[in-house]
Sequence to fold (361 residues):
Amino acid sequence: MTDSTTAGGSPPPPQLLPNLPDDVALQCIARVPISHHPSLSLVSRSWRSTVNSPLLHATRSLLRCTQHFLYLNIRINSSFNWYVLDQSPTNPRKPRTLLPLPPLPSQPIGSSFAVLGSKIYVIGGAISENPSNSIWVFDCRYNRWEMGPKMRVCREFAASGAINGKIYVMGGCLVDNWARSTNWAEVFDPVAGSWAAVPSPIEVRDKWMHASAVIDDKMYAMADRGGVVYDVVVGEWGDVSTGMDMGWRGRATVVDGVLYCYDYLGRIRGYDAKEDEWKELMGVGKGLPKFLCGATMANVGGKLFVVWEGKGSGKEMEIMCAEIEVWKEKGGVLSGSIVWSDVILVVPNRASVVHCAAVVL
Fold:
C-alpha cells in the first residue's frame, strides 16, 4: 500500500488547497469575506462542505475575521419580510442594498426578537389573533429557518433580550392563572434547549411591553405604566428610574453603554444609566430628518445604525438607513458623525420597518 491510498484501499480525499495541509487551507478560506462564500461553495464538493461547516465559523472567530451584518424585518401589506444589508463594494453605483431572505414559514404579529450567536430568534406573537408560544429561529450562517423549543406560555408584544448566552423574555401574557403568573418571565438556555421560569414579584407583571434593552447584564423593559429592570447576575427586580421612563420613546439600542432612541421632537437622544440623564446626540441634526414617525436602531459593530421609512412617490416609498459613529466627549456630551446615509430599499406605500438586528458572522 502506498501513501496515496488509505487503510481501506481508497484514495484519500483531495486537499482543499494543493500542497497545503487542510488546517492551513481552512485558515486561508476563513479570511475570505462571507459575501464570497456562495462562490467558494461552487469550487468543489469539499469546499462546499467546508463553507457550510461550523468549524469554518469557529475559525473565523478565532482569527477575528468575522463581519457585522444588519438584518431587517419589514412589513409589506400583511407579510413580514426579512432582509440583510449587503455593503459589498463590488457595485460602486449601488454600494448598499437589502438582499431578500427566505420567508418566515408563519406570520405572527407582535413577536419579540433576540440574537444569540449567528441566530435570530422570533419569539411568540399572535397567529389569527391568538398568542403563540412558538419560536422561529433563523440561522444566518445557512440562511434557513427552523423551529425552536416552545415557551412555557403563549405571548404577544413581550420584551426579550440576550444576556450571557441566554434569552430572557418577560410579559406579553395575562397573569390570570397560576401557569401564566409563574412563567410571566422565562429564560431560554440554548445548551439545554429548554425554557425555565424566572421568579418575579407580582407587582412587576404588566402584560404589554413596548420596548426593551440590555445594559450591563440588566434587562430593561418598558410597559404602559413605567418599566421594570431585572439584574440577571444577582436575580433582583426593580423599577426603572423616572428619568429613563420619561425619555424612552419607541425602539432603542445600546452602544457603549448608552441607550439611544428618538424623542417626541424626532431627535436622537442617548441615556446614560450611570448618570440617569438623557442627552441629545450632537452633530447629526443637519444630516438626518426628524423621526416624528419613528425609527428603528441597532448596534452594528459599535456603530449606531438608524433605519426609517422615507419619502414616498406614487405607490412606492423609500426605506432609508444611516450609519453613525457615536462617542462621549470628556464633559459627557454625546456626539456623532454620519458615516453614510442612503436609500436601501424601495417598497410599496404603507410598508413599515418592524425590527432590525445586528449579527456577527
Q: What stands out?
A: The chain has a mean pLDDT of 89. The helical segments are 22-30, 37-40, 45-51, 54-62, 178-182, 242-247. The radius of gyration is 23 Å. The CA atoms of residues 172 and 208 lie 5 Å apart.
